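hey so i finaly got around to running the thing on Prefoldin subunit 6 from Tetrapyrgos nigripes. pasting the sequence first so u can double check i didnt mess up the copy paste, my clipboard has been acting weird all day
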Amino acid sequence: MADALQDRLQAASRDFQKLQSDLSNVIEARQRLDAQLSENELVKKEFADLTPNNVVYKLIGPVLVKQDQAEAKSNVDKRLEFIHSEIKRIEGQLKETETKMEKKKGELVDIQTTLQQQQQAAASS
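ok and heres what it spat out for the 3d tokens, dont ask me to read them lol
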């Protein structure tokens, strides 16, 4: 019985560690999206100050290429929409992973408690 519980404990511990790793990856993705969001919002703010006579350039590799102002603004707006939708998706993943971690944590505590009770019962017999 104790061996089966030990096996369950090890499996649950591995699952919990994997969830921790998953959570870390999701948090990193969220941070990258936050950085992209800030960068694109800054660009949008800069675009707001442009006059129709201003020239916009896009960096393609090592070369600056002239770009239509309206197209550049549209691209930034589309990028912002995409980033917002990705943030929403990542937030869902964060909540889901945190919920799974809490559940797994409870499972670990239950298994450990049962093991301790068995060990105490074996010691007192």
